[in-house]
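Now for our specimen.

. . .
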Amino acid sequence: MAIKFGMTVADMILQLTKGFMKATGRKPEALEKIKIQQDTKNPKFRKTQPIYIEPTKKELKDIKVKQDKRLLQDFRSGPGRKAYELREKRIIELLKKGDLTVKEIDAKIRKELRISGGGSQILAK
C-alpha cells in the first residue's frame, strides 16, 4: 500500500515504518524513527522513496487519449504510419481525378479524416 492523499500522519508513519522494515529486514532504531517522523511532517527531510500517487480512472483515460494522439502523429511507425498511408492513398486518388485544386483537396481530406484546422496544409504545393 502506498501513501495516499488524505492519510493521517499516524498512518503515514506506520506505512513508512513498514516499508523500512521490509527494505532493511529489521525494526527502526530511535534515530531512524525520528527521521521517519520528520519525513512525514516536512518534505525537505524526505530521504525515503518518493510518494507515488495512483492516477484515477479519469486521469488514466486522459493519459491514454494523449498517448494515442502522439502515436497517430508519429508517421514513421505503428498506427500513425497506417493513417499516413491511408491519407496518402486518398490524396493520390483525388489528384488523379484532377477536378479539384490543392486547397480543395486539402479541405476535403481534413473533413473526411476529421483533422482539425491550424498548422500547415496536408499537401505541399
